[in-house]
């Protein structure tokens, strides 16, 4: 299953300038997801991080992975219209710089679920090379999106 930007917006509440995934290329609801973020040279963070040597902040790449994971969790029929809140991050490692013009491939595999709490292994790659790995967790809330 693939999703375009409009379909992603039907699942998660994030909006510009904080919707940080552009498309979903693979989706097995509640199990795994692969998404992409195309890093345009005019992304708002490049102007200040860092002037003259722009790189994508690690914290934003973690957020990109979390948003991909949220699409995976919230695409389950029982979670339709709910919100997934970021609950934790463990073992995050940053293995390379991500630059303007790069395409990040974001993958999250769900590893465990305990009630509304879920856990996943997250990986971001550029040109097949791992640049971020982490374990993430989230809480699905009954709060409905408006």
Rg, Cα atoms, Å: 15 Å
Would you identify the CATH H-level superfamily?
Hotdog Thioesterase
Q: Quick one: how many beta strands?
A: 6
The helix/strand series, from N terminus to C terminus, equals HEEHEEEE
CATH topology: Thiol Ester Dehydrase, Chain A
The assigned structural class equals alpha+beta
List the uncertain runs. Answer: none
CATH architecture designation: Roll
* Main sheet characteristics: 6 strands, antiparallel
Question: Span between N and C termini?
Answer: 25 Å
Question: Taking strands numbered 1, 2, ... along the chain, how are they ordered across the largest sheet?
Answer: 1-2-4-5-6-3
How many structural units, i.e. domains? 1
List the helices and strands and how they pair.
Blueprint: H1 5-9, E1 23-28, E2 32-38, H2 58-74, E3 83-94, E4 103-114, E5 117-126, E6 129-141
Antiparallel strand pairs: 1-2, 2-4, 3-6, 4-5, 5-6
How does this model look, in words?
By secondary structure, the protein is an alpha+beta fold. The chain has one domain: Hotdog Thioesterase (Thiol Ester Dehydrase, Chain A, Roll), CATH 3.10.129. The chain has two helices and six strands. Strands 1-2-4-5-6-3 form a six-stranded antiparallel sheet, covered by helices on one side. The longest helix is centred in the middle third of the chain and has 17 residues. The chain is globular. The two termini are 25 Å apart.
């Amino acid at each position: 299953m693939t999703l375009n930007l409009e379909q992603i917006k039907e699942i998660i509440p994030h909006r510009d300038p904080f919707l940080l995934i552009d498309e979903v290329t693979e989706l097995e609801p509640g199990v795994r997801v692969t998404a992409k973020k195309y890093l345009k040279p005019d992304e708002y963070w490049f102007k200040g991080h860092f002037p003259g040597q722009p790189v994508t902040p690690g914290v934003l790449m973690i957020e990109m992975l979390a948003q991909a994971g949220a699409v995976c969790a919230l695409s389950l029929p029982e979670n339709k219209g709910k919100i997934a809140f970021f609950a934790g991050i463990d073992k995050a490692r940053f293995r390379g710089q991500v630059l303007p013009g790069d395409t990040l491939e974001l993958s999250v595999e769900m590893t465990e679920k305990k009630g509304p709490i879920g856990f996943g292994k997250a990986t971001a790659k550029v040109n097949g090379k791992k640049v971020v790995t982490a374990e993430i967790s989230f809480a699905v809330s009954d709060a409905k999106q408006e």
